[in-house]
Amino acid sequence: MTDSHPDIRFGYPCQNETLSATTNRGIKLASIEDVERIRNKIGENLNDLKQMLLWNREMGIQLFRIGQHLIPFASHPSFPYEWAAYHRESMEQIGEIARETEQRLSMHPGQFINPGSPNDEVVERSLAELTYSATVLDLMNANNGVIVLHLGGAYGDKPSAMRRFIEVMRHESQINRYLALEVDERVWTAAEVTEVANELGVGAIIDNLHHRLNPGDLSLEDAIRLARPTWETRPKLHLSSQDPSKKAGAHHASILPEDWFELLGALNGEEADIMVEAKGKEKAVLPLL
């Protein structure tokens, strides 16, 4: 691959295979009352996060997605102690490293986090998990941090699902400070996601592979152009390649040159922060640098 555009920055999610480091050590829910075990897991996650950020600095990598299990079961009502107070100092130190090395941090709650659900219990659990994510970024003073979220299910009625999502999230200022909505490969197109993002005043994330599978009537270049004004900071995008041996949407270990050059062309010389979603993690980013 050729040199990337100087206004493009890259990152990878959750773990670093070179360092054998991860931010996603977890526990089983049955062990949630074992405070010492939980604190040990969290300590290991935080230590590895610090080591990965220092490694990223040496490599020139400027984005990192923190694993959602950094504080396992933090949003569960049975979590046994005030995690934000107990781990504040460590998380503030990590945030300082990220700022000093100019690394943008993000989190990505999973597919079951759905504020637009018609089920009140799902909405409550979703908001708890999103608040946990926002609190992590708050503690790290990650002013340009991002919480990536899909719109979730349409439940056979897209307009109603969009209205529910907007109404639930409209007043969640702590979360919306970081929130960005991502297109998906099956349900929500770039045009629909951008419409909701504009209503909430949050960013819209274009994912090249998701968009290819669910483009609506927009080209990749048009989708990026539509989403760009939703960002007050540098726009964030996702880059991945299809694993040919698996179902549509499954990530390849690396980024195929044709996918990178397609996205680079669609960016049309504009600045962007690109999260590389590949099974090879940091090893998939290095050739793009």
Word description of this protein:
The chain is of the alpha/beta class and 289 residues long. It has a single domain, classed as Alpha-Beta Barrel (TIM Barrel). It contains eleven helices and ten strands. It has helices at residues 35-59, 83-86, 88-100, 120-139, 158-169, 173-176, 190-200, 208-213, 220-227, 257-267, 282-285, and strands spanning 8-13, 15-16, 21-22, 63-65, 104-107, 146-150, 179-182, 203-207, 236-239, 272-276. The strands form two sheets. Strands 1-4-5-6-7-8-9-10 form an eight-stranded parallel β-barrel, surrounded by four helices. Strands 2-3 form a two-stranded antiparallel sheet. Strand 7, helix 7 (190-200) and strand 8 form a beta-alpha-beta unit. Helix 1 (35-59) runs parallel beside helix 3 and helix 9 (220-227) crosses helix 10 (257-267). The protein starts with 7 loop residues before the first strand and ends with a helix.
List the helices and strands and how they pair.
Layout: E1 8-13, E2 15-16, E3 21-22, H1 35-59, E4 63-65, H2 83-86, H3 88-100, E5 104-107, H4 120-139, E6 146-150, H5 158-169, H6 173-176, E7 179-182, H7 190-200, E8 203-207, H8 208-213, H9 220-227, E9 236-239, H10 257-267, E10 272-276, H11 282-285
Parallel strand pairs: 1-4, 1-10, 4-5, 5-6, 6-7, 7-8, 8-9, 9-10
Antiparallel strand pairs: 2-3
